[in-house]
Automatic annotation (TrEMBL), chains A, B:
Residues 502-621 form the Acyl-CoA oxidase C-terminal domain. It is found in: Peroxisome. Residues 267-429 form the Acyl-CoA oxidase C-alpha1 domain. Gene3D superfamilies: Acyl-CoA dehydrogenase/oxidase, N-terminal domain, Butyryl-CoA Dehydrogenase, subunit A, domain 2, Butyryl-CoA Dehydrogenase, subunit A, domain 3. Residues 10-117 form the Acyl-CoA dehydrogenase/oxidase N-terminal domain. It comes from the Bacteria. Transmembrane segments: none annotated. This is acyl-CoA oxidase. GO terms for molecular function: acyl-CoA oxidase activity; FAD binding; fatty acid binding. Pfam families: ACOX, ACOX_C_alpha1, Acyl-CoA_dh_M, Acyl-CoA_dh_N. The keyword Transferase does not apply. Its cofactor is FAD. The keyword Kinase does not apply.
Amino acid sequence: MRDYLDGPHKAARDVVRAELAAHADLAVRLPHDEYRDRVLELLQRSAASGLPARGFPKEYGGAADLGGFIAGFETLAFGDLSLMVKAGVQFGLFAGAILHLGTERHHKQYLADAISGRLLGCFAMTETGHGSNVQALGTTATYDEATDEFVVHTPTPAARKDYIGNAARHGRMAAVFAQLVVGGENHGVHCLLVPIRGEDGSALPGVTLSDCGPKLGLNGVDNGRIVFDQVRVPRAALLDRYAQVDANGNYTSAIENPDRRFFTMLGTLVQGRVSVGGAAINASKVALTIAIRYAAQRRQFGAPGSSEEAILLDYRMHQRRLLPLLARTYALHFAQAELVAEFARVFDSERDGERDEHDRRALEAQAAGTKALGTWHATETIQQCREACGGAGYLAENRLATLKADTDVFTTFEGDNTVLLQLVAKGLLTDYRRSFGELDPLGTARFVAAQAVEFAVEKAALRPLIERLRDAVPNRSDASDPDAGLRDGAYHSGLLRYREEHMLSGVARRLKAGIDAGIDAFEVFNRCQDHVIAAGRAHVDRVVLEAFQSAVRDAPEEVQPVLQDVYDLHALSTIEAERAWYLEHGRLSPGRSKAITALVNDLCATVRPAAPDLVDAFGVPASAVEVPMVVPSQA
Amino acid sequence: MRDYLDGPHKAARDVVRAELAAHADLAVRLPHDEYRDRVLELLQRSAASGLPARGFPKEYGGAADLGGFIAGFETLAFGDLSLMVKAGVQFGLFAGAILHLGTERHHKQYLADAISGRLLGCFAMTETGHGSNVQALGTTATYDEATDEFVVHTPTPAARKDYIGNAARHGRMAAVFAQLVVGGENHGVHCLLVPIRGEDGSALPGVTLSDCGPKLGLNGVDNGRIVFDQVRVPRAALLDRYAQVDANGNYTSAIENPDRRFFTMLGTLVQGRVSVGGAAINASKVALTIAIRYAAQRRQFGAPGSSEEAILLDYRMHQRRLLPLLARTYALHFAQAELVAEFARVFDSERDGERDEHDRRALEAQAAGTKALGTWHATETIQQCREACGGAGYLAENRLATLKADTDVFTTFEGDNTVLLQLVAKGLLTDYRRSFGELDPLGTARFVAAQAVEFAVEKAALRPLIERLRDAVPNRSDASDPDAGLRDGAYHSGLLRYREEHMLSGVARRLKAGIDAGIDAFEVFNRCQDHVIAAGRAHVDRVVLEAFQSAVRDAPEEVQPVLQDVYDLHALSTIEAERAWYLEHGRLSPGRSKAITALVNDLCATVRPAAPDLVDAFGVPASAVEVPMVVPSQA
């Protein structure tokens, strides 16, 4: 199973596993600055081992193996997460900005040093006043024709760069996102390379650096603030892949529409989102490995009169708390593997000069959705694991506390999850609008009529009747097993697809109706914002489910049966969690809904004996999971 | 509103508020041992201000005002939670054990010093191997007739006392729970006072003390471990209110049944549970005050073309995330106030020599249930608040991170929440069994028949039809308002009561059927453990709802309208969260279920303008909520 989970990038993962085993001591808390410096040391060691180089072109010392790069990076999440995040800032965001937004000149000058960790950098996008709405950043970069320089400036306190990794202590240079003003005209947000610290580590003139101070977690990362007071950089500092300014102060860009240009540049974020989603899923694996091993050996209470207490993992409630989360971790693992493969494919094509806008947008939506679900999943899973281990789970030595604190920010950094799900839904609605747009008037009418009929059917509550008939006569040959239909993959994806499509069309209808009624556009959107976000989530749920289905189909014979059980547990607990919606929309009868809950209970019991093996298959290095509360001999 | 929320113990709350304002600097993290010593200093200052004395009899320097004691203690949760927990260990658990389990001799010798903080103590109950199942503790206290002493001993590594507050650094004495062995016979768990540290702070002979090390939070509390190696204490060390050993080695107890004796002694825990529940609810108030003030001033995105961005709290999704939690915080506040009043009443009666076992059990169940819901609510609320404040919420300076880390253990200490809800359900089932027991055969038959008929009705799905008819013809005179029936308090409590009773009777039926079928008792219980816990929760949900209803009824006229809106939001979002169950059981039609969701959205918008005032009414001291991310002038 472990080989199957590791997939094509096993080698990259194993390199990082070995590395993590070598610095297992990091989970112990060090004093603030010592901890930060130790993480820097590990970052540089990691650079020397060639991990980050995988993600970069061969001409700058790289190996041009994007999939391996991401897989290795994700694997870092088995260890100290400060190292993972600092590596993300340095190699993913800072070096990534140079690679993706810069041109050959920048690549030649900086990439090798950035990849090796000799040039430490920041990704200075977020400001105190603007986190999600990046288009409204306040920092300015104004072209001064007289000196052929850009003047980088923080005009208001809200425009201060904030939460910037590497800024408080180690960063020498920053990729700064600022409103580019040329000849008095604002061309929107662009990125420039701005030196911030001298060789001696002190801030350069005009640059004020400060420390964000202690955080809930990730205290090995030196997050800080940057204020610019009329800092001058040469014109060449502009990362000019998508827009150029010449010596005469002429601004040019191959992308005329400023919005499209902005979102194209923002596309650099996709790699960060892919990585964070993967890291979150891997952090969940660490927590589940610890909590399930603990639950498989810990005894408490038990049958009256029995001399031995019962094992925690044999309690139904304990199974209910941990095993559906284990199943969802498997589901997300396979969805993430699909995403990484697609990421590598799209970026490899682009490197070969073939940029497909539709593929790019689809990739960005898939990355946003997987990041949102993966990081929320990590928060929920680690919380459940902590509670399932009681007081022992609260001690730093048992790692769950540290994992919880370190991963908590994942749900809001690299894009706030609610904003990301909106982005997913908006992408889908755009496709919707396109299908409206491409239809002739008659076609549109038919399209709307089809929706209306569906609606009428629903209102008449015929569907529950149909469902009941189906309950009575299972559409499987094995009529002796009343659950047969419930474990049918086509039934699961049918339900999830129905939900996704119904929600999206519902949102589309509500938006259209609101606009037609002349209501203010913001108000129209806001009234169905919860609906929009739920639709985005329904879409990602379906994508994740189908990724798991493919993985079961493609699995080697020896792991297929157990993987099928885990899949069923995931599918049915996903449907169970949304059963209110299905009941409201006549897609589940009350009886069938209860049968699903009963089957989830049964599947928990079915999966339980395999649970220790299922977490072993994650291949988390022993150094990360052998904690005092889990007695090694029994683990 | 604030006066109404403060209720009868306003004075006690205000004393603590003033105290907290005086040491506002504590939110800043200090190095490990300095932090612990600073918390001790504050604890002693707090003792000097008379807060803990309220909870103790007048003859030992107390004020015999239990309600004021708990209210003041809860209010400590507005400040640094390490102080609150350390105070809980010292005054609630350690001094509480002496008061409730000891006799006059112990009171005279120790109480005044314990209350003043001169004698620092531990409550050494939990062991490495036994947290929830206290009855199975491994530590022994064996009576040695030859020397008239008890020998306290840790026979196995699993019997080590663990997570004990005050053990790592400050405690001089411990209230140790151990199996009491007299004349070779084990009489079950009893409590003894055992000195653990000398005047110079070093461990006494035979006592090994160690540190639990860093924790997710509460690092101002010195949790540690204690191992006893044949430590001898005089016979008088036994806290002998409920059981005595005389100089001839005769064990006597007025409570003959060992189980009943054990649970009577365990009753000392009720005060801790009442306090932790209240502290958790107050910690939620701190988080909501910060997050709602932030959301009421922070702008992000907005209408296309508009020059100003929209305020976060005007977004539906943001309202959805925060306002139902605000409403539930109000609900829990009132439920907690009822609990504290009942706690004071029961304990005052007992002090006057009137112990009512039924009242005591009911109080213990109510405390367990409110503690479980209140602490899970805190975890959920603080998490939502943290996410709703993005990166800023992750910085220690903005307090949400600290709150989250510090409160996290509340769900599993002072009784694991799932175990506590089981306790609630078992209490209710005992009452059930009693009503079976008290009925004659005919009565029992009728009772069962009534259940069966109800079940048949449900199966025939007649109820949804009835519900639909009711939807069509609202049973209110104001037929122009289709939501009229949905805001009817009797309708809400009817639904919650139905759910509670249906679940309990379902559990009873399943248990009975399993036992009748000859299945192993543990297996029978385990198969419906999730059902048992859900029934416990349903009960507490109903109790909380009805407490809020009473509070609205009794509220002064000027706050009643807004309180009514907040109540409706709480009631309907509670029903919404469980709507799958109501749909499955034919108590909501799909249409009505959707109408509830729509009304929750509307109520969020209704409550939103009052939200800043509603958090102001919590009266959290400015020192606890004026954080950098909330601009004071706008707060």
